[in-house]
Inverse folding.
């Protein structure tokens, strides 16, 4: 019972369904299973490690220069971007060519950057969340949320791209409406 | 000539970044529920994107792709600071409502990825014209979305009460944004295919009369 | 193909007959207003279907009449005093946004009625969950007076039900106009299951899911009472028949359909128990659409694998027959 409640909470806090963060990325990810796994894993990595780094930025940055936050977050993601590419290049050279595109797609998008800003916003409202563990777990949760949303979209991917769907709505428009209806159901649970 | 014109002006109808490319859609879905928000977003997007792409065009092309992407993102993050400070003067209410979507505009895919794939392959003047039309395309979508969602969700136009009998509150919510944008994308595609079909028909008729 | 089309029409007819009987009961309790509401819904659905099919360059055939049963389901889930305009908007949403945008009846993703109900819940939730008492008959254009919460709401909040079993069986308690006549719903379920017009697996799964959890973690002191009221309240029975067990949405094989229904039953019960969410089953059925689609994808893969296996076996048999013939001629 608690598991079901946790699942519903996770769904309600989903950044894609409730805040539309990373919607375009998810459309790319849902195209195939390989893309889904690759993009979801890399995004989870970015959100989790990025959140940890964002904690230190938020701790060090005085509120008078809060407009500089984006610049620092961009530097964090930039460093992570280079680090991930380097690690994949040296550790799994055989996978590098396959995996590189997922890192490129995942680095600078709303899903990752939006997660960092959302966590910062929550921590600003509730000081009990302002700790490293809280940041990291929120980042990881956001990644899991991305995976859940991608799975939801993947289940209907074939139907949404079927020739039976009117040409004007086939693909992205149908996906948006589909996500909209699922998001509506999630919203009505709140 | 025709394809060049299409490349330059296509940003409004043929290659609209929101409706065709599905770029920068999260601010449209979440914040495009009132005309005021739409105007604030239009100002921010136009200023950040135009200045960032313009400055980024001076980045040496010989640099590796990853380095260039990071530099583009850093430039737009730097451009964001004065734009946000100015916005605090013009749109103080909307800034709070838009919240995290304001900085997210600075890392939009038009700046980070499309610059490399599209704009920097053009001549400077062509790039600027194309960029301006892309921005106008986004602005038009944002305005239409803000206007219609505000009208049907709140029964107001730019915060002035209008006589709308049945309000659909859900349109102001994120799911309303998803569904509205999906419908708008479909209508846009329908119009685009209709226009291109007509164009083809006119061209084929012209070629017949030429013969 | 012809057989399939005929079957589709028969299913629609079966469902329509049961819905009409529920509408008749609703007329008995709430008067002409509920009939007019159903009429508005059905007419709007037919018009929306014809226009949207025309825009999709398709012809309106008898099979497309399924839109009317979706409209009827929606009308029966509304309070009888629902605003006609809101009902019409909901039906247009059901037909166009939840159905025809995805390709219509040939490519169904959501139950149109369920999606439209959730849509109304998010935009006009207050109006949707306020009902008149049974036998209070409102005129066709009258403004409804003395609105009350549903019996489900009272049960979810307090655990009390102030109605006798007989009243519950006959639907003599406040709630959606057609979704409370329990005896009729039980008969409708039996008829539709025997006629194979609904998914048996999904129906049993939903009932088992709700029933099992109602016994294991009862909402009230008595387990029997918890079981009884959990099945009767919150449109559980109605949704189990017309939404979860919709053959267009539920997985084809009863085995998978059972688990699909079971998940919906369990989750909706937990939502009612922990959050007192009224009519949670309708929301959960929309939310669980990806699971139905996932099961359907799995079914397709199994069918494909089975046909490939059969093909390879057939090829082996032909090859062995051919080689047998060759050795015989030698």
């Amino acid at each position: 019972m608690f598991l079901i409640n946790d699942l519903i909470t996770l769904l309600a806090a989903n950044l894609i369904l409730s805040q539309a963060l990373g919607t375009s990325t998810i459309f790319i990810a849902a195209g195939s299973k390989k893309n889904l796994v690759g993009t979801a894993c890399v995004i989870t990595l970015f959100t989790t490690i990025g959140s940890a780094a964002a904690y230190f930025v938020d701790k060090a940055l005085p509120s008078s220069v809060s407009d500089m936050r984006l610049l620092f977050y961009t530097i964090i993601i930039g460093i992570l971007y280079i680090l991930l590419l380097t690690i994949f290049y040296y550790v799994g050279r055989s996978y590098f060519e396959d995996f590189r595109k997922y890192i490129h797609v995942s680095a600078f998008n709303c899903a990752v950057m939006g997660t960092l800003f959302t966590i910062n916003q929550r921590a600003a409202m509730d000081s009990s969340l302002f700790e490293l563990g809280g940041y990291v777990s929120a980042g990881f949760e956001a990644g899991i949320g991305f995976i859940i949303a991608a799975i939801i979209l993947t289940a209907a991917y074939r139907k949404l791209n079927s020739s039976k769907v009117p040409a004007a709505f086939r693909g992205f428009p149908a996906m948006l409406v589909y996500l909209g209806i699922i998001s509506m159901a999630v919203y009505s649970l709140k | 000539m025709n394809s060049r014109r299409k490349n330059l002006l296509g940003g409004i109808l043929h290659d609209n970044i929101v409706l065709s490319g599905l770029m920068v859609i999260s601010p449209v879905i979440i914040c495009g529920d009132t005309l005021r928000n739409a105007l604030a977003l239009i100002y921010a997007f136009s200023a950040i994107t135009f200045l960032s792409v313009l400055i980024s065009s001076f980045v040496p092309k010989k640099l590796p792709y990853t380095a260039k992407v990071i530099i583009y993102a850093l430039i737009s993050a730097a451009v964001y600071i004065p734009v946000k400070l100015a916005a605090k003067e013009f749109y103080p209410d909307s800034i709070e409502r838009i919240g995290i979507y304001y900085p997210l505009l600075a890392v939009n895919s038009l700046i980070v990825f499309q610059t490399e794939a599209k704009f920097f392959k053009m001549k400077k003047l062509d790039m600027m014209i194309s960029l301006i039309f892309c921005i106008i395309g986004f602005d038009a979508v944002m305005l239409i979305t803000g206007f219609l969602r505000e009208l049907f969700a709140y029964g107001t136009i730019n915060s002035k009460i209008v006589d709308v009998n049945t309000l659909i509150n859900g349109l102001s919510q994120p799911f309303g944004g998803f569904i509205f944008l999906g419908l708008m994308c479909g209508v846009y595609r329908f119009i685009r295919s209709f226009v291109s079909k007509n164009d083809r028909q006119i061209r084929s008729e012209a070629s017949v009369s030429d013969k | 193909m012809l057989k399939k089309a005929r079957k589709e029409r028969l299913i629609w007819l079966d469902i329509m007959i049961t819905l009409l009987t529920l509408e008749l009961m609703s007329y008995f309790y709430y008067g002409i207003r509920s009939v007019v509401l159903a009429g508005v819904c059905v007419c709007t659905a037919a018009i929306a279907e014809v226009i949207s099919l025309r825009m999709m360059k398709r012809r309106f055939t008898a099979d497309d009449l399924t839109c009317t049963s979706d409209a009827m389901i929606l009308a029966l889930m509304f309070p009888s005093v629902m605003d006609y305009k809101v009902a019409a908007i909901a039906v247009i949403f059901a037909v166009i946004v939840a159905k025809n945008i995805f390709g219509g009846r040939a490519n169904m993703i959501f139950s149109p009625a369920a999606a439209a109900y959730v849509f109304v819940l998010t935009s006009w939730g207050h109006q949707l969950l306020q009902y008149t008492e049974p036998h209070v008959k409102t005129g066709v254009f009258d403004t409804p007076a003395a609105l009350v919460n549903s019996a489900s709401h009272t049960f979810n909040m307090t655990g009390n039900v102030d109605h006798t079993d007989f009243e519950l069986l006959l639907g003599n308690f406040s709630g959606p106009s057609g979704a409370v006549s329990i005896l009729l719903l039980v008969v409708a379920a039996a008829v539709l299951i025997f006629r194979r017009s609904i998914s048996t697996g999904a129906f049993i799964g939903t009932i088992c899911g709700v029933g099992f959890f109602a016994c294991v973690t009862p909402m009230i002191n008595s387990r029997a009472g918890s079981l009884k009221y959990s099945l009767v309240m919150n449109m559980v029975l109605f949704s189990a028949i017309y939404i979860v067990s919709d053959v267009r949405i539920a997985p084809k094989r009863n085995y998978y359909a059972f688990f699909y229904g079971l998940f919906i039953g369990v989750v909706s019960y937990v939502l009612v128990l922990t959050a007192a969410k009224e009519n949670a089953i309708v929301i959960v059925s929309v939310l669980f659409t990806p699971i139905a689609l996932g099961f359907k994808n799995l079914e397709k893969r199994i069918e494909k694998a089975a046909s490939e296996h059969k093909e390879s076996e057939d090829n082996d048999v032909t090859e062995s027959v051919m080689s047998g013939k060759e050795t015989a001629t030698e």
